[in-house]
C-alpha cells in the first residue's frame, strides 16, 4: 500500500505537481489524426495534465496546441475561426499562429496595435502512427519522437482508438498491468456464451493463479504471469511496462487455444491523465502481415469501438450513470461480470473505486508485484526529476519491444524461450538488458 502522502504524489498531475513534472517529460498522445483531418478545419478542445488547451490544423497543415483562453478577455479560442494560418478569437478578432504569436488585432488596428507584444502558451506537437502527440516539458529536455512498432506500419495495418475513463489515471493503469484479474473478471462461464470474454477452456483460465516475475529494465520493466497447466508445462504471458503510462500486452485473449501468430505483433494501451479525476485510455493494435479487417477495427469484444464508445465525445455508452449496463441474468449464466466488453469491464471496476482510490486502505499480495514495482518506479522518477535528472524512458526512442505468450515445457526458463521474441533481435535484447 501507499501512504496518503505518497498516493497524492503519484496521482496528482496538474501544473507544478511532482508527478505532473515527470509526465511533462514525455510525448503524450492527445488526438487521433482524424480529429484534425483538414487544414482550416474545426478546432478541438484538449484537456491534458489539468490544462485546458485547444488544437487546430492551420492552412499549411501545421498543428497548433494553444492555451484555450484568449489572453485579451479570456474567451475560449475553441469558438474561434480557423483561417489564413491562424486561430482568430470571435470576440475581438485577435489571431494566433501555431507558435502562440498574436499576429493580428482587429479591434486595435494600425498604430494602436500591440500584437507583437502578445504571446499565448503553446506546446510542440508531432504526428506519428495515426496519433497527434504533444510535449509539455522544458524545450531543452525534449525527447526523441515516440517510435513504437505499431506506429511504423502502414495505416492499413494498424488501428488506434480512445475512450475517456472517469477516474484517476493511476488506477486505470494499474488495472491494465494487473494480469491476475483477467481470467477472472473477463471470463465467460461456458464455451457457448453469446457475449465476448475469455473462453474457460483457454490456458488463461485453465492455468493456476499466476506467479508474477518482474524484471526491471532501463525503460520500466518486463513482467510475466506464469500459470502452471494441469496437463504439464506452463502458460506464460509476457508484457512490457514502459514509463510512465504504457503497457504492451500479447495479442491472444479470446478462444480456447493460443492464437498462432508468428509475428507476435500485439496490442497495447496508454493511460494519459486529463486531470486528476479523468484519463484518456488509448488502445492500439497492428499487424505485420495482412491488413486489419473491419471486424478487428470494430473492437466489439474489447468494448472500445463504435458499439460501445461515442465516436464524437469518446465517452463510454456503458458508464457509472447507467451502472455500466450490468445484466444480472447474463452474470448468472454467461459471463463472470455481466458487463459487455472486456475493457468496459475494466472501466467499471476501476471507476467503481471512486475518482482517486485511497491506496492506504489496500491489502496487497504477491499477485500485485507488477503494481508495487510500478509505484516504486513512479516515486523514484519524482525524486529524479526534482533532483534535476531524467526519468526512465524519457530520452530514448527504442520500441522494438513486443509482448508475447508461450506454453513453455516443464524445466524450461521462460526467459530463454521468450526474450528473443520480446526484443525481436539479439542486438536489441543486449541493448535493453536488465539493470
Features:
alpha+beta, Rieske Iron-sulfur Protein, 2 domains, 4-stranded antiparallel beta sheet, disordered C terminus
Q: Can you walk me through this structure?
A:
- The chain is an alpha+beta fold.
- It folds into two domains: 28-134, Rieske Iron-sulfur Protein; 149-431, Naphthalene 1,2-dioxygenase Alpha Subunit, Chain A, domain 1 (Alpha-Beta Complex).
- The protein contains eleven helices and 18 strands.
- The protein has helices spanning 4-11, 18-23, 169-177, 182-185, 203-206, 294-298, 328-333, 342-351, 369-386, 414-423, 426-431, and strands spanning 28-32, 44-48, 51-57, 63-67, 81-82, 87-88, 95-96, 102-104, 125-128, 131-134, 158-165, 211-216, 220-228, 234-242, 246-248, 268-275, 278-286, 405-408.
- Mean pLDDT is 93; it is low at 256-262 and 426-435.
CATH superfamily heading of the largest domain: Naphthalene 1,2-dioxygenase Alpha Subunit, Chain A, domain 1
Number of domains: 2
Low-pLDDT ranges = 256-262, 426-435
Give me the secondary-structure category: alpha+beta
Going by CATH, the architecture of the largest domain would be: Alpha-Beta Complex
Mean pLDDT, all residues: 93
Counting H and I runs of at least 4 residues, what is the number of helices?
Answer: 11
- Report the C-alpha radius of gyration, rounded: 23 Å
Largest sheet: 8 strands, antiparallel
Distance between the termini: 25 Å
Helix amount: 10-25%
What's the level 1 CATH class of the largest domain?
Alpha Beta
- Total beta strands: 18
Order of helices and strands: HHEEEEEEEEEEEHHHEEEEEEHHHHEHH
CATH topology of the largest domain: Naphthalene 1,2-dioxygenase Alpha Subunit, Chain A, domain 1
